[in-house]
Amino acid sequence: MNRAARPAPGSRSFFRVAWFGYLLASCVEVAIAADYCETIQRIASGVRQELPLQIDRGTRLFDVGVDCEQRLVTYSKEILVRTGQLRPGWRKNLADAHATLHCREKGFVVLAGWTVIDRIHDGEGRLLLTLRTGPEQCQALKGSGRTA
Questions:
Q1: Could you list the mean pLDDT of each consecutive 10-residue stretch along the chain, which spans 148 residues?
Q2: Under 8 Å CB-to-CB from 145, ≥6 apart: which residues?
Q3: What is the pTM of this model?
Q4: 51-89 pLDDT, tens digit each
Q5: What are phi and psi of 133, to 5 degrees?
Q6: Which of 81, 97, 105, 110 has the fewest CB atoms nearer than 10 Å to its CB?
């Protein structure tokens, strides 16, 4: 390539080329994000058709939502046992497990950079607990030395 044809750093042409590169990269990022969002919405739609879905012996998933603008995936779950039957500290244990699941090396929050919210209800539909794990929580977990 002819060196004279390349814009010199600090010149107007250099800044235009740099700005165009930035815009192009931003457009590609937006296109990828839009495609990614559509994929997550399709998956959520498929899951919704299977609801309610038994997750384990004591938990049932009854709704899933996707908010692409906020980069959120929200799960609504029902605990199938009475809260009085749960071990002391169950809320903290569940919160720790939620963070560990989503912040591990191949966890959704780490891979996608989205936030996952679990809304936990009792058998009567009362909200008992909201768990939220996002990139900030994963960074804090990583910074604390606790491994996910």
A1: 46 46 44 73 88 87 92 92 89 92 84 90 94 92 66
A2: none
A3: 0.73
A4: 898 888 888 999 999 999 999 999 999 999 888 888 999
A5: -130, 120
A6: 105
d(CA 120, CA 60): 10
- CB 128, CB 115: distance < 8 Å: no
**Tokens representing residue 71 in the block:** 């980069």
Q: Which two tokens stand for residue 63?
A: 């709704």
Structural tokens at position 18 = 């740099």
How far apart CA 133 and CA 96 sit, in angstroms, is 10
My answer on whether omega of the bond before 9 falls inside 30° of 0, hence cis, is no
Token couple for 136: 């900030």
